[in-house]
Amino acid sequence: MPKKINITETVLRDANQSLCATRIPIEDFVDILDTMDKAGYYSVECWGGATFDSCLRYLNEDPWERLRTIRKHMPNTKLQMLLRGQNILGYRHYSDEAVRGFVRKAVENGIDIIRIFDALNDLRNIEVAVDECLKAGAEAQGVMCYTKSPVHTLEKYVAQAKELERMGCQSLCIKDMAALLSPKEAYDLVKALKENCSLKVVVHTHSTTGLGAMTLLKAVEAGADVIDCAISPFASGTSQPCTESMNYTLKQFGYDTGLDEDVLTKIKTHFAPVKKKFLENGQINPYVMATNADGLIYQVPGGMLSNLIANLTDMNSMDKFDAVLAEIPNVRKDMGYPPLVTPLSQMVGSQATVNVIVGERYKNFPKEILSYLRGEYGRAPGEVNPDIIKKALGDEKPMTERIHVPDELPEARIKAAEIIGCKPEDVSEEDVLSYVAFPKQAEDFFRYREEHKGVKVTYAIQKVED
Ligand code: CO
After folding, report:
1. Which residues pair with 4 in a beta bridge?
2. Could you tell me the pTM of the whole model?
3. How far is the CA of 449 from the centre of ligand 1 (A)?
4. Which of 24, 165, 172, 450 has the lowest CB atom count within 10 Å?
5. Could you tell me the distance, in angstroms and rounded to a whole number, from the CA of residue 105 to the centre of ligand 1?
6. Centroid of ligand 1 to alpha carbon of 181 (angstroms)
7. Residue 178 pLDDT
């Protein structure tokens, strides 16, 4: 019997997010969903992450409607989403009520697997989401955000895996957002995890640094159960390794991927012109398609790189790019080695940018970094430089408990009702949650939807360009 290896397709979420800032509207993929349902994927990652924000902010799409549409066209494939634990899909902590509501509604609207992470690997921040996910009957996939630092050891990762198992997670994902996980490290880590816990091990990496496909192959050899890949037009660069080439390689080695090549070709044929369009309209910057081995030095994830380039270009300061890249590891050390994943990646990036642009380190602090230093994001993996805490907070002491936010749902319901023009009790729970997650974007979207009421949505809605 060939050993089974499962493949998750990321084109609708992470590949979309990593290559073109999550700007693919549903009309660009709705026609291929029925075909994707026949590919034999283990799961399709299609929701969460930046998709929710992007739907409301740029695409005039109801993210919940998008999920229901995907569900309708893919009845046989597990649908997967990415959730930032207590941050839900945003960049701050939300109330436990909001987290539970979001998880429950995501499952009700069609999600089967929720990949739940905390940027700092502070598991207190994913407890509530995991608990609600299990209650809702979905698979809770606990995450270890992979990063390299003197405080991130194999023993520490194994301990975290055991903790995820204790919490009731059915699978665990090694989330290597910065493409730092080398083939050898993947092999050693997956082996250690398989030997010490009974959870399914999922490996998620990016091709940014050129290691991706090699890393996945070694991870599979070490016993990984699931790997994340993207269909070729949306593979490589800051995205995932290519589905077709991994399938080809693994089958030669005698693995059973369960994938149907003819269907993969149809999916590829559909997405090739979509990619061409995004390259032509500039929403895919060719830079993100290239291999950048600097990442192995600077530990900068793809999304963070493209953000940095955009911000520095806006400030007319692209000449400072190298200096900012070089400052990032210094800031990271001062911050106690947080993994560079959203929102920490943006925060460390802004602090490094400020340090370089101002010309003096830590003269100014972005407000998110101040919150971080107060402990509002959770526990840092290592020790935060006490001089910087002192400089930022004076005599104020950082908090040690997990932050608890009061329930925002009742007030959000009233506000959403005012905008939509109905009674609070008539606002759907989904709309309330959209408003809680992104008030300004949800408000604009609700108004847009009211103005276009009665217009049959055929997924050819005129887009508002940002
Ligand atoms: Co990713």
Report:
1. 256
2. 0.91
3. 31
4. 450
5. 23
6. 12
7. 85
Q: State the chain's mean pLDDT as an integer.
A: 93
Instruction: Determine the pLDDT at residue 460.
Output: 41
d(CA 242, CA 239): 9
pLDDT over 80 at 297, yes or no: no
Q: Is the peptide bond before 233 cis (omega within 30 degrees of 0)?
A: no
Q: In this structure, are residues 288 and 238 in contact, taking their beta carbons and an 8 Å threshold?
A: yes
Distance 387 CA to ligand 1 centre (A): 33
Is the distance from CB of 392 to CB of 334 less than 8 angstroms? Answer: no
Nearest Cα residue to 43 out of 6, 81, 4, 78: 78
Give the relative orientation of helices 429-437 and 63-73 as an angle to the nearest 10 degrees. Answer: 120
What separation in Å is there between the alpha carbon of 305 and the centre of ligand 1?
A: 13
CA of 126 to the centre of ligand 1 (A): 18
What pLDDT digit, counting tens, does each position of 335-369 carry? 999 988 778 888 999 999 999 999 999 999 999 99
- Per-residue pLDDT of 146-170, as tens digits, reads 998 999 999 999 999 999 999 999 9
Ligand 1 centre from 14 Cα, in Å?
Answer: 6
Distance from the CA of 182 to the center of ligand 1, in angstroms? 15
Q: How far is the CA of 228 from the centre of ligand 1 (A)?
A: 9
Tens-place pLDDT, residues 442-465: 999 999 999 988 765 554 433 433
204 Cα–ligand 1 center, Å: 7
Ligand 1 center–CA 179 separation, angstroms:
9
